[in-house]
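Could you help me review a protein record that somebody else here produced? This is what I was given.
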Amino acid sequence: MAKIYSMASNDVVIAVYKKGDDKSVGAKQIKQAIIIKGGANVRDHITGQNKNFVETVVTAEELKLLQANSTFKRKVANGFLTVDKKPEAFKADKSAQITEKEMKDKAPKAEVKTGLADAE
């Protein structure tokens, strides 16, 4: 069993396709879909807190399939996913909620409260 840590706000679905003779996109059929949980950078409606990352447990076979997938490799290279290592640096994706500091940087004169405390 391996742990994948995700800093994505939404679930990431990685499709593994059946191998076939036809190379056209329409002919490909999904063999398996592996879901990596999202939910980082999203405020929990009960606790009011944000998680910096979310953990998903996958089997060794699923990890092997993921490591051969170009989408998974790209997300690891961009720092949104890590394997068996908790993320040290926080990385927000484009769908993450804006923080008070980011709001002040965009509109210095505005007095807006986002409800999200900035990690100092």
